[in-house]
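job 3f2a | input accepted
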Amino acid sequence: MSVDVSWWTLRRRVLALLGVVGALLLSVAVAEAVVATKNREYTDVLLMEVGPLRVQGQEMLNALLDQETAVRGYAVTADPEDLAPYEQGLAQERVTAQEIRQLSGKYPAIVADLEAVEQQADEWRRGVAQPVIEATRTDGTEAGQALLTDEARQRFDEVRGAVSALQDEILTAREATADNVERTGNLLVILLIVAALVVGAAGIALLLALDRMVLRPLTGLAGQVREVVTGDYAHRIVGSGPPEFQRLGADVDAMRQRIAADLAEVREARERIEWVNAQLQKQAEELTRSNRDLEQFAYVASHDLQEPLRKVASFCQLLQRRYAGRLDERADQYIAFAVDGAQRMQRLINDLLAFSRIGRLTAGFTEVDLNSLMADVAAQTEPARQYADAELTWGNLPVIRGEEPLLTNLLVNLVSNSVKFRRPDVPPKVHVSARLVGEEWEISCQDNGIGIEPEFADKIFVIFQRLHAKDAYPGTGIGLAIVKKIVEYHGGRVWVDTDVPEGTAIRFTLPAMPGDVEAARQSGQPAGATEPDSDAADHDASPPVGEQAGGDGTVSVDADTDSAHRSTDDPAAGSAGARPADVARQGDADGATGEALGRGGRSGSGDTGGMKEAVG
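job 3f2a | predicted structure (616 res):
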């Protein structure tokens, strides 16, 4: 029955291989331990038992030879001192025999040969040595020598032969023990070789297993990934080998599918973007054509349309002067309507031309000192302020980069609006201030007029947006639209701060010069700090607000917003309009930003700065 290893993980396979190798090495190690123990035992026997036995066998032979030599010498000399070696040899024989018995406990054959040696030695002493000694002691040397016959020598040779047999047996035991030592040593070497072969075979098996289970699957997976990398995102990636690599292949294929889906979405998005770009290109071409038409219209409006309007206005005024009071009241009213309509149309055309020329006809940015600019603003708004008994003040204003005519127009519109939309029986007060917020100057124009309802804050900058009747407040409703366009042309934003306690605060931002930002940073001045006011100075008057320029149709300084101010009686207008209460509250992102910024540095209504323009 074959074992299905397809479910075996790489960890299991490696652990199984290591387990088999470990078991083999452990078996070899146990066998080596057993063989090494036997080898040590055999070595100990060889060194501690068999080796001393050979020495003791030689000692036994020497002891017997001493006895035989002593007996022969005594038989020749009959000197008792010659018998001392005999006694010593006998004692040595007994000691040696005892030691041989102790060392040869594992060798019964040696013990048997020792007993044979002892028996032969006893028989030799009884049959030869004792009779010779007795005969020599009692009868003299001749009697003793007579007993030393060839038979006596043969009997001692038999003793010597028994000792030789004992020594041969000891040598046999030694050779057997040496063979055991050599055999166990060889077996140890074989086991070491086997262990080395097991380790080598395990290494080769591990390399082959890694090649088969790791390298080949990874190489195949890498090849499939490279195919996807080359652009074949539809190529399906399949993992092989252990389950881990199969799951890895599935994960990589899932990633491929996700990337292919994302690329498909990106491709679709790119196609849509290309289509949108094509449409935008068409629209840009259409806008270019439209701009050319608008420029042509502006040219016609400034030249061709002005001429019939001037004729209509001139002849209507002639009719009004010549026939005023000669016709009935209704005819005078109709003529007045015609004159007013022609004049309003002329102002409207001039304002449209001024609005369209902002940013298109440019003289380039220069450094503009707003303090000096305010003197021109005060001069241009002098007639309107004299009529309304208005007071204009401003603080210390910065130097910025911009177009001086446009910035003058911007501030003239703001100041004129503040004077126009005033409260009845309250002298208007207008204050212009500036503060550095981050890298921008925030400039505020605040008055004590009728104010602006929060729901109208978004509408006052829309061109031609009027929330009052035209007889309540004069103008074309384009003044603050011009303000917004000028501010945005200079890279800023404009909004109405609806959190002021009274009146209106219109705030706008202009980019600050790097030197001002760096100076504020080095001095540690906090963002939003208000600049100190300078000394007071009066200025001369200039043509009133709303006066049109010459016949070339250049910008007229119109101060009209007509939008979102509370409707009230106006001595300059001559009548009062109703306050629009049905306009829904609206919000604007710029307006919300302006409210947030406006809370920090609001100048109070009627504040008097260092420079003051008072009339009345």
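job 3f2a | Confidence is low (pLDDT under 50) at residues 1-5, 529-616.
job 3f2a | closed
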